[in-house]
C-alpha cells in the first residue's frame, strides 16, 4: 500500500492506547504494520472528561490533571514497548481531548490505518461491546484493524484470509489482502461463501437439483478468478488459494481464519456478507475471529 497521498507527508499508522495489556499488544502489531510500510506510528490516547451527575457540580482540577497524567504514562509505556519490539521506528505521541471514538475518527482523516485492541480499559472501554467498534468502522476515514485473539503473536506464520462477496467493498478487500500477503511473505486464502437460499430447508430442497447448483458454483468460481487477476498480476509472488463454498459466510470465514495471521473484509457487503457493517456477520467476526481483523473502507482507494 502506498504510504503517501501523492502530495502530502506520509500517512501514519495510528494505534489507540488506553493502558490495557490488549492495547499494548495492538500497538506492537501496529508497529509491525508501520515497519513493513516504512511509515511512522502515532499512538493516541483520548482524555474524555466524565460528565458530573449534577449539572451544578464541577470536577476538581486535580481530577482532570490525573486523567491527563495517566494518559501520558500509558502513552510512554506503549512507546517503550513498541521501541523494544521495533527499535528505530518513528513513534509519535498524541494526547487528545474528547471521546475515544471522536478522537480516533478525527485522526483517521490523515491516517493510513487505525488499530485498536479487542478489549480495552480507560479510554476504550468495551471496544467490542457494541457501538464503539461499529462507530470506528462506519465513521472512520481509513481502514480499521481490530486486534484480538493471538494479539501478542505479532509474527504468527499463518496465511492472510480475505472474505469476498459481490460488492465493490470486497474488491478493495482483495487488493488489500494481496498487499498484506506480499508485505508479510504469506500465502493468501480467498474465501467466497455463498448461499442462494434463506433457510436450511430451502437449501435441502434445492440439493435435489444438483446439476443446477454445480452450474451456479462454476459461475461463482469463474467470476472470482476474474476478480483476482489484477492482484495476481501486481503480486505474482503471492501464492493464492481460492475457496468457493456453499456455506454461511460467518461459519466459513471463522473456519478458514482459525490459523490465519490476518482476516480481511470489506466494510459493506452483499450476498454472503449482507449488512457487513451493521449486520450479524460483522458482529460475529468482531466477537469470534481468533486473529486480527482488518476492515477495508471504500475511502482506502482514495488514500492509497
From TrEMBL:
Residue span, UspA domain: 11-148, 159-297
Pfam family, one: Usp
Entry superkingdom: Bacteria
InterPro entries in the record: Rossmann-like_a/b/a_fold, Universal_stress_UspA, UspA
Family label: Belongs to the universal stress protein A family.
Record protein name field: Universal stress protein
Amino acid at each position: 500500500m502506498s504510504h503517501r497521498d501523492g502530495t502530502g507527508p506520509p500517512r501514519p499508522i495510528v494505534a489507540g492506547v488506553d493502558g490495557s495489556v490488549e492495547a499494548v499488544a495492538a500497538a506492537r502489531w501496529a508497529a509491525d504494520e508501520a515497519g513493513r510500510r516504512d511509515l511512522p506510528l502515532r499512538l493516541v490516547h483520548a482524555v474524555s472528561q466524565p460528565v458530573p451527575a449534577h449539572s451544578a457540580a464541577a470536577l476538581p482540577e486535580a481530577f482532570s490533571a490525573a486523567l491527563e497524567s495517566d494518559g501520558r504514562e500509558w502513552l510512554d509505556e506503549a512507546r517503550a514497548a513498541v521501541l523494544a519490539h521495533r527499535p528505530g521506528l518513528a513513534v509519535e505521541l498524541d494526547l487528545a481531548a474528547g471521546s475515544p471514538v471522536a478522537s480516533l475518527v478525527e485522526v483517521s482523516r490523515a491516517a493510513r490505518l487505525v488499530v485498536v485492541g479487542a478489549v480495552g480499559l480507560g479510554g476504550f472501554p468495551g471496544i467490542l461491546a457494541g457501538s464503539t467498534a461499529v462507530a470506528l468502522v462506519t465513521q472512520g476515514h481509513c481502514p480499521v484493524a481490530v486486534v484480538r485473539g493471538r494479539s501478542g503473536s505479532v509474527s504468527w506464520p499463518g496465511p492472510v484470509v480475505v472474505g469476498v462477496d459481490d460488492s465493490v467493498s470486497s474488491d478493495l478487500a482483495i487488493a488489500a489482502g494481496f498487499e498484506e500477503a506480499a508485505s508479510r511473505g504469506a500465502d493468501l486464502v480467498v474465501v467466497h461463501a455463498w448461499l442462494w437460499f434463506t433457510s436450511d430447508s430451502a437449501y435441502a430442497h434445492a440439493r435435489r437439483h444438483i446439476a443446477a447448483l454445480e452450474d451456479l458454483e462454476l459461475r461463482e468460481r469463474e467470476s472470482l478468478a476474474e476478480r483476482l487477476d489484477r492482484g495476481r498480476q501486481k503480486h505474482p509472488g503471492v501464492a493464492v488459494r481460492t475457496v468457493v463454498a456453499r456455506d454461511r459466510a460467518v461459519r466459513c470465514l471463522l473456519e478458514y481464519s482459525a490459523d490465519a495471521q490476518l482476516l480481511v473484509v470489506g466494510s459493506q457487503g452483499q450476498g454472503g456478507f449482507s449488512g457487513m457493517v451493521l449486520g450479524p456477520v460483522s458482529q460475529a467476526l468482531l466477537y469470534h475471529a481468533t486473529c486480527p481483523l482488518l476492515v477495508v473502507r471504500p475511502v482506502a482507494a482514495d488514500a492509497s
